[in-house]
Write a sequence for this structure.
C-alpha cells in the first residue's frame, strides 16, 4: 500500500504500514500510534501527530427533499489543520457518535493537538454596538 503525506515528511513505508495495520479504524479514518490515516478515493493519506496542530468536528446541514417531507440531514466531518494552522483536509465521519469517539481517541493519542474550532473573525464590526 502506498501512503501520501499531507505535510512534507518522509517515512518508511514499512513503518507506516505497521502503524496503519495496528491502528483503530473509524469510518475511513484510522488512528495509529504515530500517525492519523484517512482514505480518499483510492489513496491513503497520513499526517504525523507531531504535525497535527488542530482537529475538530464540523457538522454540515444538507437540505433533503423526500417523498413526504423535507428537512436537513446532518453530515459529520473531521477537519484537520497542519502545523501552520492551515486547513488541509476535511474527512467524512459516519455519524455524531463516531465523531465524538474519534476526538476522544485523538485526545489520548495526541494530547498536544487542539480539539476546538478556531474563532471566526468578524468583518470589522463590533458586537457591542
Amino acid at each position: 500500500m502506498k501512503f501520501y503525506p499531507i505535510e512534507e515528511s518522509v517515512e518508511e513505508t514499512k513503518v507506516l504500514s505497521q502503524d496503519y495495520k495496528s491502528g483503530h479504524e473509524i469510518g475511513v479514518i484510522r488512528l495509529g500510534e504515530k500517525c492519523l490515516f484517512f482514505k480518499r478515493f483510492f489513496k491513503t493519506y497520513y499526517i504525523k501527530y507531531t504535525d497535527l496542530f488542530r482537529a475538530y468536528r464540523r457538522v454540515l446541514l444538507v437540505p433533503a427533499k423526500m417523498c413526504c417531507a423535507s428537512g436537513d440531514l446532518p453530515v459529520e466531518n473531521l477537519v484537520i489543520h497542519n502545523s501552520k494552522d492551515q486547513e488541509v483536509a476535511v474527512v467524512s465521519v459516519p455519524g455524531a457518535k463516531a465523531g465524538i469517539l474519534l476526538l476522544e481517541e485523538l485526545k489520548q493519542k495526541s494530547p498536544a493537538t487542539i480539539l476546538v474550532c478556531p474563532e471566526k473573525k468578524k468583518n470589522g464590526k463590533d458586537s457591542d454596538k
